[in-house]
Amino acid sequence: MNRQIAGVRGVSALLPHDTATWAAVEDLARSVLAAYGYAEIRLPVLERTELYARAVGEVTDIVEKEMYTFLDRNGESLSLRPEGTAGCVRAGIEAGLFHNQTQRLWYQGPMFRHERPQKGRYRQFHQLGVEAYGMRGPEIEAELILLGDRLMRMLGVKTRLLMNSLGTAACRARYRDALVQYLEAHASALDEDSTRRLQRNPLRVLDSKNPEMAEVLAGAPQIGDYLNADAQAHFERLTDQLSVLGVRFEVVPRLVRGLDYYTHTVFEWVSEDGGAQTAVCAGGRYDGLVAELGGAPTAAVGFAIGLERFMGLVTKVSADQAPDVFVMTPAALGASALVLAESLRNNGLRVEVHLAGASQKSQMKRAQESRARCIVQAQDEEAVVVICAGRNEGTVPWTDAVTRVTKALEAKTKHDDK
Question: What does the pLDDT look like over 35-69, one tens digit per residue?
């Protein structure tokens, strides 16, 4: 026997018992996104490395430690996408989607980061991204939050919405200066990563997960103290709108983003996982990103959901993939069973045919395990037996089987609806 080849660590297949739930959640998400007027964009998984270095930032764990990067045969540095926004903006600029027009876009698919695999975090993982372009007011932020809130309520995902404002670019600049001054005064308390980030991307210091940094970060300046009147008004309009719309939220002064193209609102939905606060969905306004990547200045806001973690929180979803009809047949009648199955499918029914040549007892066990609403037993070349909801509907010729099955299923549906 040949040696079995193991899968890549942190990269897992989604098996059939999982894909049923995933498909149901994705279908519901598509319907919600369509209700809000968002159109799907399908993005490549491979981009030039410089796209992420410029968009995500060179002084980030993603670019420095986590990207899957390689040289192609032409010597060009390429990377598997670690997130979706940079590729969405790049594609939109190339296609002219942002020129004097608004866009509501969404995408879904695998992302790749070389980090330590753990619960809810994998080297290949999936994200649902929702992004809006060309709209500067807080109303589009409210719309996105309403969309996310609706999706979570419909799927029974229990989270808390956290929000903050980063203000304008000028506000950030003032806050950055104050933060650098504070951190330099406490340089001896900074760890190696924070010391490295201090001069190049000081807001990233606030993202430190090192518990030894907690005390020094607790005393750091808060960005809310550096907002100008326009930034405060923008955020107040958003929070007032959400309150009127019945959306519950918490303002968290230390919720920030480290990259300079982020402005105004940032938000996260978090869950309590074993006592630890875990982000399920994160978003914000990034008005500077399109210009950073070579396009005209364009307002932009969006969020992304990490689907592996999200799926573990879903409590309301119908993922029934049971067939309507299960056809039991001996091997000699396999061809006739396939003809019958096609006729049933032509009537809009889901049909599974047992073609493994097992005994009648084994096939019946499989039929019951499938939870099919109706079972058809091929008897011989002349007739079949129809069983619906455990009731024998009789023996009929092959030619009458479709009519008998559809009538039996219609009767069962009417009975179930009463």
Answer: 999 999 999 999 999 999 888 876 566 776 789 99
Q: What's the whole-number average pLDDT of the chain?
A: 91
Query: CB-based contacts of 349: which residues, under 8 Å, 6+ apart?
Result: 323, 324, 325, 405, 406, 409
pTM of the entire predicted model: 0.89
Q: How confident is the model at residue 339 (pLDDT cuts 50, 70, 90)?
A: very high
